[in-house]
């Protein structure tokens, strides 16, 4: 089967940073599905894993953690899907990614593809939807099933990216007032289009900007960009007993003491935790992806695809990685069709 991978970790401008490969078609065992890949989406995790480093792989490293496709074969322990089912998923960071014609994925972290979307639009959703869902409804403890959030506010830092694009929509659906950060005209317009109530610039101090829109503090913060850079700003504007969630790791320790007097909760979100540690509740990602699909099909959520490339090969994926590395993308970049 065709696949795209790497042996060396190089700059994306280098022709060997991602190369075309021919690999054996895998065989599903246990709870694995063999999926015929139709479309894949590029995420920051792809860029981080591929980033230059002094390491050479003896076997090809396959990236790609956003897939939409069709079940070709189900492992003997599978009960959720059968051949012919259309699925979407993010997969596991500890296994080969989905940048291949056929891909193995555990059915417990796989969802039924939204019926109203084609494969490209569906592929834009899984990783960001899982991340946003877990961050809002598990890590921050927000509920979709009460009306208590009418007077509460969330600040989403880096709202124009893939996760932010979904988080805005889910937070609005939960009843929150959403303040998103954006810095360019095109990203500002995108954040408005997705339903943010207010927009501030993350390159400037938060508190004065919030005061201009009549907000003294926020109950929730979802940080999707440079946790350390925004740490003092977040500590200043979070409400007493508020909650902060971030998805961006830091090289240096964070000063948690800044949160003490307000009794603020800080929590990390990493959507690969369940698959990485094979947690007993892995099935939750299957369930939430199915719920996201229902929200998409009912018109409550929209896909966040903004750039569509073809075909799926090394040259196209190098272009997609370069777009993400530019730091100027909004929404998601999707590559489709082998």
Automatic annotation (TrEMBL):
Domain Enoyl reductase (ER) intervals: 16-335
CDD domains listed in its UniProt record: AL_MDR
Designated name of the protein: Zinc-type alcohol dehydrogenase-like protein
InterPro entries to which the protein is assigned, alphabetical: ADH-like_N (IPR013154), ADH_Zn_typ-1 (IPR014182), Chloroplast_QOR (IPR052733), ER (IPR020843), GroES-like_sf (IPR011032), NAD(P)-bd_dom_sf (IPR036291), Quin_OxRdtase/zeta-crystal_CS (IPR002364)
Keywords: Metal-binding, Oxidoreductase, Zinc
Keyword Zinc in annotation: yes
GO molecular function: oxidoreductase activity; zinc ion binding
SMART domains xref list: PKS_ER
NCBIfam families according to UniProt: adh_fam_1
Oxidoreductase keyword on record: yes
Entries under Pfam families matching the protein: ADH_N (PF08240), ADH_zinc_N_2 (PF13602)
Family statement: Belongs to the zinc-containing alcohol dehydrogenase family. Quinone oxidoreductase subfamily.
């Amino acid at each position: 089967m065709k696949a795209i991978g790497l042996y060396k970790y190089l700059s994306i401008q280098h022709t060997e940073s991602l190369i075309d490969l021919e690999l054996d078609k895998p065989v599903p065992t246990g709870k694995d599905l063999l999926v015929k890949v139709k479309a894949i989406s590029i995420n920051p995790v792809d860029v981080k894993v591929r980033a230059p480093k002094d390491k050479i792989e003896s076997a090809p490293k396959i990236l790609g953690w956003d897939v939409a496709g069709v079940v070709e074969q189900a492992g003997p322990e599978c009960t959720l899907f059968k051949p012919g089912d259309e699925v979407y998923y993010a997969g596991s960071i500890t296994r080969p990614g989905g940048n291949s014609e056929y891909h193995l994925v555990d059915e417990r972290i796989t969802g039924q593809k939204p019926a109203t979307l084609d494969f490209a639009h569906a592929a834009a959703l899984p990783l960001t939807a899982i991340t946003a869902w877990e961050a809002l409804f598990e890590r921050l403890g927000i509920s979709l099933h009460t009306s208590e959030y009418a007077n509460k506010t969330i600040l989403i830092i880096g709202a124009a990216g893939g996760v932010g694009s979904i988080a805005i929509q889910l937070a609005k659906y939960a009843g929150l007032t959403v303040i998103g950060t954006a810095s360019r005209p095109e990203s500002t317009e995108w954040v408005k289009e997705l339903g943010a109530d207010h927009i501030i610039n993350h390159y400037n101090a938060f508190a004065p900007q919030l005061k201009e829109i009549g907000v003294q503090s926020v109950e929730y913060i979802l940080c999707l960009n440079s946790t350390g850079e925004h740490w003092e700003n977040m500590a200043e504007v979070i409400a007493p007993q508020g909650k902060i969630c971030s998805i961006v790791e830091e090289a240096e320790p964070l000063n948690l003491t800044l949160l003490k007097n307000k009794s603020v909760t800080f929590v990390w979100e990493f959507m690969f935790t369940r698959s990485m540690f094979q947690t007993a509740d892995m099935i939750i990602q299957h369930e939430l992806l199915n719920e996201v699909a229902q929200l998409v099909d009912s018109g409550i959520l929209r896909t966040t695809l903004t750039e569509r490339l073809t075909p799926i090969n090394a040259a196209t994926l190098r272009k997609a990685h370069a777009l993400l590395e530019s730091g100027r993308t909004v929404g998601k970049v999707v590559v489709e069709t082998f």
